[in-house]
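The protein record filed below.
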Amino acid sequence: MVNFKAGGHQGEHKRALAAQGSAVKATEGKVTKEEKRALLQRPWSNDDPLVRSVVNERGLALQVIAREKVIDESNVLLKAALVDAETMAHWFPPSDSGGDSGPPFICRPGGDFVLHAQVHEAASSGEVLLSEAQRLSLHVCEGEVYEWLPFAVQAAEALGEVTIEAQLLEPRPPSSPLTLDASALGLALGKWLFGQLLSINEIFIARYLDTPLVLRVTEITSAAALEAAEAEAAGLEEAYVDEHCFRGLITPMTSIFIAPSSTFKGSDSQRAVADGLILQGYTPRVERKRLNMMQVLTSDGEVFPVHKQLLRPCISLTSAIRSSADGGEHPVPVDCATFDRVLLFLESASRGRAEDFAFDIATLEDVAKAAQTLGCRQLRECCEKKLGDFESRVRLHRWGDVVRQNERGGCWVTMDGMVFDLEAWLPEHPGGATIIPRQALNKDCAVFFELYHASRESFQYLREFYIGEVWPEDRSLIPLEATAASKEFMQQLQDFCAPFRLSVAEADLPARLHLGMSAA
């Protein structure tokens, strides 16, 4: 099925800088997660250039402190990450406030959970005070150091409905379970969580009627998706709204449903805690029937439930969209992996971001064929543009031009006569930004590619960076390493690149000449 989970990424070019310090025992500029963790566990400071080299510009390395060992808990502080004033000012300078924008939020790079940040006198410089529940949600350990970043709450969706499972923090005697009103608890949590960000599977603790409760977010629905569902139920024509939401903001209009715990029952002791709470007035949430849905059956037997409005750009499905009843299956001659990518594009296009959609060059031709099969003009045109960009940049290059490009600060590498422009790849190269310019320029670098990329997974990127071939008569000018790449590797390289390599047959030369190119 479609993977709608958001994710984060930290530029790997900072790893190369970290390798310059003696504290990191790196190989050719690469810093592993373990080495980064070891770096942050040594005596450290955020002013240390080595530490700054492995965190983002606005990031800070902070040590996790168990909050329950420092201060007494209260409802006001239970869901906040506590830091000192200097740390808060680094993330949220006063000049950036721009008025009342709500509470500040922070997150770990690439993490799903977002925390409200709050200044507290118990927090010292270089520390972040987190509760046990927060540490569990974030998968962090007391005493260890992690990077933390400010989070832009403006990008968060408003939530329409939230389902939260509740259980007691401590067990009660089986003969005297605690009874609470589920509706009243939901209203109380709505007031307490107002303006906060919630994520699926987030765990936190709240005190209600002097009783500490463990709460876990199990389901959320965005306000926009809720409004669209209500409009459909009323028979109104409504545009598609992305229903896949895993994090959002609590507003005065958010409805919070409280349900008994169903997850913490792996042992008798856990069951005793969960069963110690009785929710009076609890009724299971009624699932709304998803209207205007169409079941798409792919060529390899997978079924995708898709909103008809999302599929309207696919002209070949028009008759099926009009005639099929909810729940009916419609076969398409597209495999599930490719159809998954088509849906991702259609979702991006529905949000007005089709031009920003990132295509995978390795699967681009399959997606282009699917666009043609499904009659999706916008997707077909985007694929043609991407493929056209590839065709327009591929040409024959004089060896002298390759060398001059590198002397000007470029990064053109050569393998088996092929030329690849890797300049845009350097900041993301897992091995660091310096190893390729240091080892692979102005020579045939196939032996280094084989040496550092044993799995051949990196072959998938070659077409993305391919810009053509060295002129046949110039290939003898390319320096070779004393040790050549293996015959097996060269055969695999040639087989993989054969479908997109530029033919250097004499008949093809006039159409591929770069008119501005100098002579050898």
Q: What stands out?
A: The chain is about 30% helix and 20% strand. The chain has a mean pLDDT of 79. The longest helix spans residues 377-393.
